[in-house]
Amino acid sequence: MRFFITLLVFLYTFINATPTFAIENILKDIDGETGDIIELEDVITDEEWYFDMGGKTLREKITEIRAKEIKDISKSHYLLEEILTKNFEKGPIKTMHLFGYYRAGLNSEYENSDHDLYYGFNDIDAGINGKLRDGKSYYEARLRFTPQKDHSFLSFMPSNMYIANASIPHHTIIVGNTRTPTGYEGAKSSVVIPLVARSQISRNFGNTRQLGVRVKGNYDLIEYDLGGYSSDTYFEKFFPGAEFAGWVSIKPLAKTKGKYGRLRMGTGLTSGQNDSEYTVVGAYTSYEYKKFYANFEWGKANGYNGAKGLSTKKAEGLYTTLGYRITPKIQLVSRYDQYKPDLDNSDETKREYSAGINYFIKGQAVKLMLNYVFCQNDIAKDSHRIILGTQLLL
């Protein structure tokens, strides 16, 4: 706990001190007319540059963060959001939040007598987000610092880069580089995925960000996400083709205010062209009641343009997940995951059986994950994997 408090103090001190030191270096100069040194206090005040903590000291803010309980695990929460958010009195930007995101895991893999132990980085992100002055627009600029063997460091670095506007009731229009709705889980942030790894259809068909324009609608009984994009996924080509990605979900129990639980059913289509044409269709359903959660998703592709790259193969897969929160901080999860990578040339089926436990120290902001995965492959050796994952959102 002492280390954790020290880390918070260091981050806050660094963020606040850096702009001040920079200004001091610039302003400690001789005025041409008077020959006097320009003092920093005459030009800028602490209140204008330091992050607003609501009149509380850093110690009080840290104590407040330690005591705060975050029960909602359906959304991402940044641990230091209040400390690292700057409010501007003038200009087009109203607020700016500096954030960091770290997600990694210690992996222990067993394949027959072979054993491999390594520490893998899933995500190391940093960026800014916030609101614009009009009160109906917001923005995000995020960078990724996780090396990828199939992409150059610079092309992979840009993550979410967008401006959004919610002037139209129940709608949000987003322009920029965002995660496309190819599959339900494939469109979700890694932060809220219940297991360390995504399902096989999600990591093959979806989990990409592309440059385009999308419209998201949200009503009591229906949601939709429709957009047109460039089919380039990692800024490697300039508009190699166009892509449409859309997903529609209905919420039949939304009017009951959770009395009978929350039910969601959806379907989607992604179709585009990038050297070759591709089409992905899918369907999803989930049900949540008090501490219990279950979902099911199916996807089929006639070619796809996912996170692992462009493919002309026909593939199909499905998964189902069960979850139960024993306490507000502890959740048990399990998943059956099946995937056929080539429907034309092979009967190969890859199956993954997963079980895990999530410990939400501070909701999704500070989370520990322990997963066991048994991988069963029709034409390759079976394997076992134990993953101890960590997640930290600052």
Structure notes:
- With 394 residues, this protein is mainly beta.
- It has one domain (51-393): Porin (Beta Barrel), CATH 2.40.160.10.
- It has helices at residues 2-27, 46-49, 58-67, 153-156, 200-205, and strands at residues 85-87, 95-111, 114-131, 137-144, 158-165, 171-179, 209-218, 222-230, 242-250, 262-274, 276-289, 292-306, 309-325, 330-340, 350-364, 366-377, 383-393.
- A 16-stranded antiparallel barrel has the order 2-3-4-5-6-7-8-9-10-11-12-13-14-15-16-17.
- Strand 3 (114-131) and strand 4 form a beta hairpin.
- The protein is globular and about 65 Å long.
- It starts with a helix and ends with a strand.
Kindly state the mean pLDDT as a whole number?
Answer: 85
Strand content: over 45%
How would a textbook summarize the main sheet?
Answer: 16 strands, antiparallel, barrel
Work out the helix count.
5
What is the class in the CATH system?
A: Mainly Beta
The side-by-side strand order for the widest beta sheet comes to 2-3-4-5-6-7-8-9-10-11-12-13-14-15-16-17
Detail the topology: elements first, then pairings.
Blueprint: H1 2-27, H2 46-49, H3 58-67, E1 85-87, E2 95-111, E3 114-131, E4 137-144, H4 153-156, E5 158-165, E6 171-179, H5 200-205, E7 209-218, E8 222-230, E9 242-250, E10 262-274, E11 276-289, E12 292-306, E13 309-325, E14 330-340, E15 350-364, E16 366-377, E17 383-393
Antiparallel strand pairs: 1-2, 2-3, 2-17, 3-4, 4-5, 5-6, 6-7, 7-8, 8-9, 9-10, 10-11, 11-12, 12-13, 13-14, 14-15, 15-16, 16-17
